[in-house]
Specification:
By secondary structure, the chain is mainly α. Helices cover 78% and strands 0% of the residues. Helix 2 packs antiparallel against helix 9 and helix 12 runs antiparallel to helix 13. The N and C termini lie close together (6 Å).
Length: 325
């Protein structure tokens, strides 16, 4: 039997995120910390996040070309179009909230979607092979999406993109992967513990980053919360649409049940932590964009838990012998 507490962990994380928001905003009403603190939290979070990424299973899973093609087309063509249409319908395209929604919704997850794939009894191997593609393409394509979807409505600093790509993505990734290789090669006995510690610190640094965002920008955020109902509406409709679209796609192309679950998970989970970092570099004076990404995380955790239970329930009914404890 699986550890039931594991499936409830994201609820605890959501509560901690809310606590970080409240604490940061409360302290910010009286005093604000230096904005440079956010840079340190960003660097720490990126390094820890990239350290947890494993590329070992990539070459085995990449053999399933049909699944990878469907997942990549869904994540980088179909879902960005849906995100644009939904956001355009419910939010003014000249508003920073629109930009925040685009940034959040076009970027597929590169970390916790694997944990939820495993919890829902999906094919972890094929989703592991998908990870490096998701990571590379979302960083490269983000300025393309911003240019296409926000043309002539908001100033998108595309010249900053190369700095983001090199200094905030490539260098931390290479450094983290080098340390990961070094530890696994020379101190294999402590590698599992170092990986688990890095996973914990990803969330710790994320909490510190969220705290600092709300601490520095609390007054601006309070003055601009009227658009939050639209944010909730767009994100919830997007999640529901992605769920049914994943199931329709998987069945139309005769994927296995495990691969259907995997496709559902990669289309459901978004990469809010990394996009939060990139948005802070791209748009340092646009707290509404950062607010949208934090709201997305708060909605995403319970959403992923819900569809995990739905998928597991459906799998038990179709294959009850696999779940005999």
């Amino acid at each position: 039997m699986e550890n039931v507490s594991a499936s409830w962990k994201p609820f605890h994380e959501s509560l901690l995120l809310i606590a970080a928001i409240v604490a940061g905003a409360s302290v910010g009403l009286f005093t604000s910390f230096e904005t440079s603190l956010m840079d340190y939290f960003i660097i720490a979070m990126l390094f820890m996040l990239f350290y947890t990424i494993s590329l070992e299973g990539f070459f085995d899973g990449v053999k399933n070309k049909k699944y990878l093609f469907l997942a990549l087309m869904s994540n980088f063509v179909v879902l960005p179009l849906i995100a644009f249409l939904l956001s355009s319908a419910l939010v003014d395209r000249s508003n920073a909230i629109f930009v925040g929604l685009v940034i959040y919704l076009v970027a597929p997850c590169t970390d916790w979607y694997l944990g939820f794939t495993k919890l829902a009894h999906g094919d972890v191997e094929v989703n592991s092979a998908l990870l490096p593609f998701n990571l590379l393409l979302q960083v490269v394509l983000l300025p393309v999406y911003l240019y296409l979807f926000t043309a002539n409505t908001i100033d998108v600093p595309l010249d900053v993109f190369f700095d983001v790509l090199i200094y905030w993505a490539a260098l931390p990734f290479v450094a983290a992967q080098f340390l990961r290789w070094l530890v696994s090669r020379w101190r294999a006995d402590i590698f599992p513990r170092s990986h688990a510690l890095a996973e914990r610190f990803v969330f710790v640094t994320l909490l510190l980053l969220v705290f600092s965002i709300f601490n520095v920008h609390v007054e601006s955020l309070i003055a601009n919360t009227t658009g939050l109902p639209s944010v909730f509406g767009v994100i919830l409709i997007f999640f529901i649409t992605a769920f049914f679209l994943a199931r329709f796609t998987a069945r139309s192309f005769a994927l296995s049940k495990k691969q259907e679950i995997s496709l559902t998970m990669t289309m459901a989970a978004r990469n809010a932590p990394l996009m939060l970092v990139i948005s802070l570099v791209f748009f340092p004076q646009q707290p509404l964009i950062h607010l949208v990404l934090v709201v997305g995380m708060l909605l995403e955790f319970p959403h992923l838990i819900t569809i995990t239970q739905i998928l597991k329930s459906g799998t038990r009914k179709s294959n009850p012998q696999e779940f005999v404890s």
